[in-house]
UniProtKB/TrEMBL annotation:
PANTHER family membership: ACYL-COA DELTA-9-DESATURASE, DESB, FATTY ACID DESATURASE 2
Entry-linked InterPro entries: FA_desaturase_dom (IPR005804), Fatty_acid_desaturase (IPR012171)
Name of the protein in question: Acyl-CoA desaturase
A matching Pfam family: FA_desaturase
Signal peptide: none
Residues in Fatty acid desaturase domain copies: 65-331
């Protein structure tokens, strides 16, 4: 129970679960050709951008070719990571039974091995969303983003740490499933950790061989300018992904929870935790596309394996449900969400404040004498 959800009764939670389950069933029953056409169209666009960008960078010593090629490659990497890779690996397109676009076979253009990402993200994060001590996405283990997190002097550096994390975000994601806190405490499984590290190293070698060796070599004497273009495209993708993901989890009054929240948690309570623990980014179709529709983070947390192109049509109904049950629906334009997130990161680099204690249950009414 939190201050924003204390008014909900057990019947309210049950009703919320029934309504959202029905919404999910409705969308699932309606999936078909237009959804398949959408993801195929996005994949064709992404591949055209990558091929065009790589071709332009064969002449990367020419400034116009370098700028255009780098921009096209950055856009291709953003689309592949956000709207394709992230969502395919969520199983959003498994219903198509297409082995080329399936969560079990997709390996994305990123240094993080797909299998490790699917565990840390699909299993851990989406099960324990915003549960302190269970959801490693709360500050990614290196940032303090809520007053419930104990302060430590190391957090004084977190504004700078966050800048570095944004630039090299794919590497932060790559080591996320290692659970560094357990490794440092010596409570991890050494064999499992070694196996995960070996997989990460293989993936890094593969990505570096492609972006920082093979394609620069193809450009011959323009090796260094093409190398710089590939590094820039990766950095742009990393900063964009970091910004979108942080704006979906940390701005404004997005809530975190303690582990006792999980005790006897019902389906309706799980849904409510997703609603109050997420934030959207308002904007048009192009913004939604380039964020992988994680601009609809609330809807994504409610229905992580529904195709992302359906979130926009679900959103008004979810917002209406929140209004009817007196729940916040956190949303705002990108600049406001970015500013709100950075405000938290800077503020919580310093000690305090403390959140108000959770409301105590109302005492039972005294029995009326006969």
């Amino acid at each position: 129970m939190t201050a924003t959800t204390a008014h909900l009764t057990a019947d309210d939670h049950a009703a919320i679960a029934r309504e959202l389950d029905a919404l999910r069933a409705e969308i699932t029953a309606d999936l078909g050709d237009r959804d398949a056409a959408y993801i195929h169209r996005v994949i064709r666009t992404q591949r055209a951008l990558e091929i065009g960008g790589r071709a332009l960078l064969l002449a990367s010593s020419l400034p116009p070719a370098w700028v255009a090629g780098t921009a096209a490659l950055a856009l291709a990497k953003i689309l592949e990571n956000m709207e394709i890779g992230h969502n395919v690996m969520h199983g959003q397109w498994d219903w198509m039974r297409d082995p080329k676009i399936h969560s079990m076979t997709w390996e994305w253009d990123n240094v993080s091995p797909a299998e490790q990402w699917k565990h840390s993200h699909n299993v851990v994060h989406h099960t324990f969303t915003n549960i302190l001590g269970r959801d490693k996405d709360v500050g990614y283990g290196i940032l303090r983003v809520a007053p419930e997190q104990p302060w430590h002097p190391m957090y004084l550096a977190q504004p700078l740490v966050n800048v570095l994390l944004a630039m090299f975000f794919e590497y932060g994601v790559a080591v996320h499933d290692l659970e560094i806190d357990k490794v440092l405490a010596g409570t991890d499984d050494p064999e499992e950790t070694r196996a995960k590290l070996a997989a990460i190293k293989r993936k890094i070698r593969r990505q570096w061989a492609k972006d920082y060796l093979a394609f620069p070599l193809l450009s011959g004497p323009q090796f260094l300018s093409t190398l710089a273009a590939n590094f820039t495209a990766n950095a742009v993708r990393n900063v964009w992904a970091h910004m979108v993901i942080f704006c979906g989890h940390f701005p404004g009054d997005v809530e975190v929870f303690t582990e006792d929240r999980l005790d006897g948690e019902t389906k309706g309570e799980w849904y409510v935790r997703q609603l109050v623990g997420s934030a959207n980014i308002s904007g048009g179709w192009l913004l939604h596309l380039m964020t992988g529709n994680l601009s609809h983070q609330i809807e994504h947390h409610l229905f992580p394996d529904l195709p992302s192109n359906r979130y926009a049509e679900i959103a008004p109904r979810v917002r209406d449900l929140c209004a009817r049950y007196g729940l916040p629906y956190h949303t705002g334009p990108l600049p406001r969400q970015v500013a709100s997130t950075w405000k938290k990161i800077v503020r919580y680099a310093f000690p305090g404040p403390r959140r108000p204690r959770r409301p105590e249950p109302a005492p039972a009414a005294a029995p009326v004498a006969a």
